[in-house]
Amino acid sequence: MLRRRPLPIVSRTAAAIFGVALALSTVLLVVPVPSFNRGLKEGDIASRTLEASRDSQFVSEGLTEAVRKQEADRVADVGLPLD
What we know:
Elements: H1 12-30, H2 61-74
């Protein structure tokens, strides 16, 4: 006696569409979408706090030398007593 296959509850096409939609929505939720906000100008107030990924310093030789000279000029000349 031959048995007939039971009818599937969901068709293969519907299951494939659901799988693609599920994969697409998962990718959109997991992968961050970059924001290309090019409307910022110098002096604008930031909408969020931005933090640098590393510390960095810049030493200006010209400004440092100018401050050293200014501070050296502020020191009064004091003569030493002769022996």
